[in-house]
Amino acid sequence: MDSTRTQVAVVGAGPAGLAVANLLRQSGIDTVLLEEQSRKFVEQRPRAGFIEEWAVRALDRHGLADQLLREAEQQDRFEFRFEGARHVVRYGEVVEGRHFLYPQQFLVADLVGLHTSNGGDARFQVSDVRLAELESARPVVTYVDATTGRQHRIDCDFVAGCDGAHGVTQTYFPAATTIRARHDYGIGWLAMLAEAPPSADCVFFGIHPRGFGAHMARGPRVTRFYLECRPGDTPENWPDDRVWTELHARLGTPDGPINEGPIFEKRVLDMHNYVTEPMSYGRLHLAGESAHVVAPIAAKGMNLAINDALLLAEAIAAYYRGDPSRLAGYSTACLRRVWQYQEFSQWLSDIFHSGTADPFKARLSQARVRRLLGSREALVAFAQLYLGIDADF
Q1: How many CB atoms within 10 Å of residue 278?
Q2: Which ranges of the chain have pLDDT less than 70?
């Protein structure tokens, strides 16, 4: 068995793991980054695309956002579309902040390039990752190199579990001392990518008796669409003709038609959230979707991953400077923002998915939208949570 000694083993090369690895390298802390997929796969996998300004500025302070700031579009408003009309919510006019439109795979590619070009140790296509001795001062990570078939051992001080909702690291948390809080919305979203120019210069959300719909640009030639569907539905039930019929019905207005184009991705997302508490066990610390999933209702997932990475890297660096308190408080610090975002997503979901099946819920949703559109005070409170401003309480 080949053996390596490092300070931190980072499992997972998504936004959380790559940000942790880059930040630790900048602090002079040795890391080994492990990822089960190939580098090409993680750099091309389409995922989230909206990054809040606080997260962009934090990455920029560490030199991790140069490409993002050069290329990303910025948005400070969105539209509700209902009853055949467009209702613009200009949240950037009442608070200082905006969203940056930058697909997650672009950020991943940037962070991989920065890490490897500066001598970072990144190992792709690994399998059979296992952890041991997590409650000791010397945890152990073993894996198999999928290319050579050789087994490797990494002795380290800490493990950063950043391998996502289906990763292995979260499975090492003991059931007796771990709370796994879960919420199922009871709905699905058909998520699609179309080779079609954006139909507007901002995000828009359709609130319609036939179900929710959404439009989110993913660049000048690609658009992300969502359609509410039943949970457990399949893409095969949604041929292109049906998709475009529903998108026009739920999102189109006389002065806001929907641009069509070839659909090259369809998948059904069952809307659910979960949170693991605490996010630390022994020398293992989770970050990103290993610890919590928030449905894409409010586009919060990548932002939470960045927040976790910033806090974890800062805490580990403080530990090596002789201050273990930051690491001891890491989970509590992360969960403040996690639960604020979970609550906001639930609130927004109640608006999005009101429909007309339940007249009481539909009228509640209409009242919330009217208040948001008509009250500056309500819009300020909304904008602060939508942009993640002062959300750590």
Answers
A1: 17
A2: 355-357, 393
